[in-house]
Amino acid sequence: MGVRTERGRITLTVAQAGIMAALVAVATFAVQVPIPATKGYLNFGDIMIFASALIFGPIVGGFAGGVGSALSDVAGGYASTYAPFTLIIKGAEGIIAGLIAKRGSNKRNVLAVAVAGAEMVSGYFLAEFFGLSLGWAAATEVPFNILQIVAGGAIGIPISIVILKRLPETWIRQSQAEEVGTA
Question: pTM for the whole thing?
Answer without folding.
Answer: 0.90
